[in-house]
Design goal:
This protein is an alpha+beta fold. It comes from Streptomyces longwoodensis.
Length: 67
């Protein structure tokens, strides 16, 4: 990818994030979150919103085990 590539931020059902070229079809199991820009801009967004790297299913199991 070159420095002019536009990216979009994707999220899957486990609340995991990924950067994906904006002009390529989104792969199955992933949804756009509405953020698009340079790789740096999208990476900064992911750093801001993805504060717990554990998959959602693991977080839920851990929360249920604590209850």
């Amino acid at each position: 990818m070159d420095e002019n590539t536009r990216y979009q931020v994707l999220r899957n059902d486990e609340d995991q994030y990924s950067l994906w070229p904006a002009d390529i079809e989104v792969p199955a199991g992933w949804q756009p979150v509405g953020k698009e820009g340079t790789e740096t801009e999208c990476s900064a967004y992911v750093d801001e919103v993805w504060t717990d790297m554990r998959p959602r299913s693991l977080r839920e199991r851990m929360e249920n085990a604590e209850a």
